[in-house]
Amino acid sequence: MKRSITRLLMAPSVIMLLVWMIIPLSMTIYFSTIRYNLLYPGQNNFVGWMNFEFFITDPGFIPAVSNTLILLLSVLIITVVLGVMLSALIDKPFFGQGIVRVLLISPFFIMPTVNALIWKNMMMNPVYGIFAWISESLGFEPIDWLSSYPLASIIMMVSWQWLPFAILVFVTALQSQDTEQKEAAQMDGATGWHIFRYLTIPHLARPIAVVVMIETIFLLAVFAEIFVSTGGGPGYDSTNLAYLIYNQALLQYDVGVASAGGLFAVILANIVAFFLIRAVGKNLTV
Amino acid sequence: MSYLTITDLQKHYDSYHALRGINLTITEGEFVVFVGPSGCGKSTLLRTIAGLESSTGGNIELDGRDITEVASSKRDLAMVFQSYALYPHMTVADNLSFALRLAKVSDAEIKEKVRSVSASLQLDALLERKPKELSGGQRQRVAIGRAIVRQPKVFLFDEPLSNLDAALRVQMRLELARLHKKLGTTMIYVTHDQVEAMTLADRVVILNAGQIEQVGTPLELYRQPNSRFVAEFIGTPKMNLIPANKIVRHEDNLAIDLLGQQIIFPVNRLKGPLPKSAIVGIRPEHMTLVQEGGDLSGRIELVEHLGSEAYAHLQLSSDQTIIIKAPARTALKDGQVVNIKIDMSEVILFNENDRVISVIPEEV
């Protein structure tokens, strides 16, 4: 009796969540099996696996998958490595520590679109960007970052956006590190590097795992930075899966193929998650 | 021969003068305990010796080498922390061998040293465990083992037993005393617990407000304190202090007026000139209950039975409460008026500046 009341009371939220998830998923699955082109309304006949075939054989598919993975891994490595180093650097008290921390964390509050515009127009612009000015004042040719190194530019922007998140997590984690342990290591003859290597890094294992997982969720779906700066180009050089799906749906008006692409992205995300959790998840149980 | 010499050591924090000129010499193999109330600077002194705090004046010399400015990793000292500070992600074996691995000692030697230390501390069965899988006492032993394995010149202990429960604390105290006998290494031990200080120490250093109040063997401090602070700090229950305002000299004796009754105190036990007034210090065990006569009388407020002995709280005519030690199965009742005889040979006199102005006669 008591149990059924509990279930009854929980039912609305459970059903709500289920509907929330099931309806978009089943509609995506449904769209991916029919012909659904916005240019040809009304011709929504069943086409089986054809949308998937179209998506996978699309010339943008291979670059999009590899760009997605390259972007993900590069940003993860940059944010975790730089994040750990910067956090360790600002962990010891120094004059202006509070301001430095705020400055390091503030990029996180800037929305991706604005971030991309800042980098595109203020930093990387070959004529009046800061990078161009630096190379010119050193006597080099200015580089047109967005057309010469499109993916690297995107990686730079996204890293800038996500480094603060990593720093935020690591700085907090470092504050919980036991000072007596560090002192004990000092007495044991450890240098600063030894303490970092044998105490700080193991202490940060769990925060690193958390940062990697959370960032993975968002980095698989990077879109605004690409849309605002490179538009996926030149060619497919900076197109990732999210951008390719957008391209299919709203530039080529083929919702069916885009839905198939969306399902593929879900599968890819699961594969990546599987390996990542295998790789870093064991730290979570410590 | 002095082994560790501390000369005029100073430590200032921003506006706080934590160590005010510490002078101390410690000989090799000695077990020295720093004791004092919280905030007296005992931990700061230990941490300054360890090099974890830098001093702002004076110097420290260890085995003929000035180590005042030497980094703590190069001082050849080992420290056991209050929180044990074991490395949480390393096994017990790795914790024990950490310092040796950093010092690039050969694997065979590390193995041998870890084996012998773990055997002597009964850690053999725990070598593969992580610190969080150990009990408090086991962690404590690992922390001690981690210090021993390096064979340092001096062991430093920072309140190592304060996180243990009472029974375990007594046991670990005994093990520490045994360890010191066996190793013969110089040990410096910080505690706020005067029982630990009395039981472990060869010499006790009593600190108060950043200064050394008195240094001596436990019994010296107990019988012949320099000041009221030491007298009150050492001994449980505390020494009773009764003010006496009228002191008259009768030939070789002083007649001290103690709440209307006179007690006789020999002049030759007095240091310095004849005082006008004094504070009379008597330990609870130096008073006995008598049927008649006696030096003081009071009304029993409360009797604490400890089994092996009892402590009676007595209210004197001045409303002051004193504590006296009574036999275990005493028939004392609350409210009863009793007479007390004072053992004059153990009485200590303090002047108004809380310094001791009497000497205790040598025991025959």
Automatic annotation (TrEMBL), chain A:
Q: Which GO terms describe its cellular component?
A: plasma membrane
Is Isomerase among this UniProt entry's keywords? no
Q: What is its main location?
A: membrane
Specify the signal sequence span. Answer: none
Membrane topology reported for the UniProt record:
Multi-pass membrane protein
Please name the PANTHER family in this protein's record.
BLR7065 PROTEIN, INTEGRAL MEMBRANE SUGAR TRANSPORT PROTEIN
What is the designated name of this protein?
A: Sugar ABC transporter permease
**Where does this protein come from, organism-wise?**
Marinomonas arctica
Automatic annotation (TrEMBL), chain B:
> Which Gene3D superfamilies does this entry report, sorted A to Z?
2.40.50.100, Nucleic acid-binding proteins, P-loop containing nucleotide triphosphate hydrolases
What residue stretches are annotated with the ABC transporter domain?
Answer: 4-234
Q: Which Pfam families match?
A: ABC_tran, TOBE_2
Keyword presence, Transport: yes
Q: Which GO terms describe its molecular function?
A: ABC-type maltose transporter activity; ATP binding; ATP hydrolysis activity
**InterPro entries, alphabetized:** AAA+_ATPase, ABC_transporter-like_ATP-bd, ABC_transporter-like_CS, ABC_transpr_MalK-like, ABC_transpr_MalK/UgpC-like, Mo/tungstate-bd_C_term_dom, NA-bd_OB-fold, P-loop_NTPase
Q: Which GO terms describe its cellular component?
A: ATP-binding cassette (ABC) transporter complex, substrate-binding subunit-containing; maltose transport complex
Keyword set, alphabetical order = ATP-binding, Nucleotide-binding, Sugar transport, Transport
- What SUPFAM superfamilies does its record include? MOP-like (SSF50331), P-loop containing nucleoside triphosphate hydrolases (SSF52540)
Protein name, as recorded:
sn-glycerol-3-phosphate ABC transporter ATP-binding protein UgpC
Q: Which organism is it from?
A: Marinomonas arctica
